[in-house]
Amino acid sequence: MNIKDIIEQKLSEVILNVYQLKDIKLEVQENKTEFEGDFTIVTFPLVKQLKKNPESIGVELGEALTETELFESFNVVKGFLNVKVKNQLFIDNFRSVNKNFSVVEKKNATVMVEYSSPNTNKPLHLGHIRNNLLGFSVAQILKEAGYDVIKTQIINDRGIHICKSMLAWEKFGNGTTPETTHTKGDKFVGNYYVEFDKNYKKEIADLVEQGMGEEQAKKEAPLMKEAQKMLLDWENGDDAVRTLWAEMNAWVYKGFNETYKRLGVDFDQVQYESNTYILGKDLIQAGLDKGVLYQKEDGSVWCDLTDEGLDQKLLLRSDGTSVYMTQDLGTAVERFKQNNIQKLIYTVGNEQDYHFQVLFKVLKKLGYEWADQLFHLSYGMVELPEGKMKSREGTVVDADDLMQEMYETAKSKAQELGKLESLSEKDKEASYETVGLGALKYFMLKVDPKKKMLFNPAESIDFNGNTGPFIQYTYARIQSLLSKAGALQSEIADIELNQSEKELIMQLANFKTTVAKSAETLSPALVANYVYDLVKTYNSFYQNNPILNQEDENVKRFRLTISDITAKTIRKSLELLGIGTVNRM
Questions:
Q1: Minimal CA–CA distance to 548: which of 535, 539, 557, 537?
Q2: What is the dihedral sign for C-alpha 56, 57, 59, 64?
Q3: What are the per-10-residue average pLDDT scores of the chain (585 residues)?
Q4: Which tens digit of pLDDT belongs to each residue from 165-181?
């Protein structure tokens, strides 16, 4: 429990004793004013109930609080009650933080987090990076908050878009492979998706020039007709098409796994759309039998959600084929059947908000009570200074290229500073990688997930300001300090604390509260901005307090210990964001 929580608890007890008022919670703020005191208590909410002015309420509460074991003195300024907390409370709180740092209280509940879910017709890009980092970080934070977590992805490995890449390779690939062209598998296949689009557009232009309308030309273009036939052949189990499909997907999976490894994300389970697209049809029949769904004359099946403020949703086409919603219904049911999970989180961009509203409501109508435990972690798109990306036109920021660019920038900066010269080449390379990718991850995760964001690589790797490298540098600085100090003694003496030491203790005590809040809101941005504030507070403490040169041995020991727990908290916070640390920068 942090000091603020302790004060709020004691304040509630005092209000009950003095005024006989239950369940009153006054706002307690850290005192940032020039008035003496560690915290400020806002008394105005009691004015109406007690029919007293705020100043007299402040005095009455101040006198009652200073009679307890926690408070030393108080003053009242215009109804704001400023209280000075006894030094011992800070010391005891710090001992508790130090002792319980690694303790995780288990929740006895399992959460499944879905993220990534790419298509096998193109490599991962900048948008996938935000998705993966967000999903992975949320999973890490939920674990730290005490939940058991299952990380999963569903790979979209079938459909017309996959057939476009396959057909283009058949026509234009001349039997080449990723190996013969020395190309990463997912990029190799993605190139043929772009190739299909280029040739398809040429065919449309030719048909339009011959007098056909554009919409008709899109349907009549030979390439599109061939791709549609290939999809039909795939669904009918054609051996040649299935063999090519399996081979090209294998190329892509190998490429994906290389990207995931470098990005530092992983999965406990993987599902494939080719296995799940037939799921859900039995649910549709059950819904018809219950009268929850209805069938039109053409045989198509619908769900009427107008009473929920939505519209009517198609769940099965007239020819009996499923739509995305059908398979998502089946996949959700399958996940709860196969895993003992209490919550399922879908990390998907905000362009799918409506889809998930419908999915959750249909599942609820079908009688699945756990539908209330489904959550869409909706996030804003990532844009570049030059605008949106387009996969078909090949104008995306490739995930691998971006990671390499971040590595190169970190390497260039480190060489400029010249502080890693004594390290081996292997250690230098590891440092460049950790700092470069740390910059990328922190920049992505410090923004609230709901917000659209503009990604600026140069800004992200600045060694000053709210950036990953700035935080990693402080960690490295503390490691250097602790290395010079030698072994730490575990006992913490009762010393008289100054203001910067108190502020640092309060920041450290807020870590577990921040993690809990971040888990509750599914926002890694809370952890990112917490660790930035912690680093700023520590740097202020470091600049204003001698540590190794401190003559009082008890004070020196305390300052080394608080530096050590600060480093551990920085490291743990960065771990929750999927970011590594280095001992030298």
A1: 557
A2: positive
A3: 90 94 90 86 93 94 96 93 96 94 95 96 93 98 98 95 97 97 97 96 97 96 97 94 98 98 98 90 93 95 94 92 90 96 97 96 96 97 66 68 93 89 92 96 95 84 88 97 91 93 96 97 98 98 97 96 98 98 92
A4: 999 999 999 999 999 99
Alpha carbon distance 3, 506 (integer Å): 7
**Cα–chain-centroid distance for residue 310?**
29
Sign (positive or negative) of CA dihedral 369, 274, 351, 139? positive
The three state secondary structure string of 252-299 is HHHHHHHHHHHHCCCCCEEEEHHHHCCCCHHHHHHHHHHCCCEECCCC
Helix (H) or strand (E) holding 28: strand 28-30
Residue 237: φ, ψ to 5°: 80, 25
Q: Is 288 exposed, middle or buried (0-12, 13-18, 19+ CB in 10 A)?
A: middle
State both tokens at 191: 């190139």
Nearest to 131 by CA among 271, 249, 268, 260: 260
Distance CA 91, CA 506 (A): 11
Residues in the chain: 585
Of 259, 270, 329, 254, the C-alpha closest to 114 is 270
257: Cα separation from own chain's centroid: 20
Q: What are phi and psi of 272, to 5 degrees?
A: -125, 135
CA–CA separation, 228 and 241 (whole Å) = 12
CB 431 within 8 A of CB 585: yes
CA gap 429, 410 in Å, rounded:
10
Picking from 156, 36, 93, 55, the residue whose alpha carbon sits closest to that of residue 506 is 93
Measured CA to CA, the distance from residue 117 to residue 348 in angstroms comes to 9
Q: Where in the chain is the domain with CATH 1.10.730.10?
A: 405-576
CA distances from 466 to 56, 136, 461, 462, 530 (A): 43, 21, 10, 9, 11
CA 303 from chain centre, in angstroms, equals 33
- Tokens 């062209």 belong to residue: 181
CATH level 3 topology of 405-576: Isoleucyl-tRNA Synthetase; Domain 1 (1.10.730)
What is 3-85's CATH number, 3.20.20.10, 3.30.565.10, 3.30.1360.70, 3.30.465.10?
3.30.1360.70
Distances (CA, A) of 340 to 117, 139, 154, 336, 364: 22, 17, 18, 6, 19
The answer to whether the CB of 126 falls within 8 A of the CB of 455 is yes
User: pTM of the prediction?
Assistant: 0.93
Contact 221, 155 (CB under 8 A): no
Q: Could you give the residue range(s) of every CATH 3.30.1360.70 domain in the chain?
A: 3-85
User: Residues 6 or more apart from 310 whose CB is under 8 A from it?
Assistant: 354, 357, 358, 361
Tell me the per-residue pLDDT of 102-130, one tens digit each, with 9 for 90 and over: 999 999 999 999 999 999 999 999 999 99
Q: Can you name the residues that pair with 389 across neighbouring β-strands?
A: none
Alpha-carbon distance of 101 to 527, in angstroms, equals 16
Match 């940032």 to its residue by tokens: 32
d(CA 74, CA 80): 10
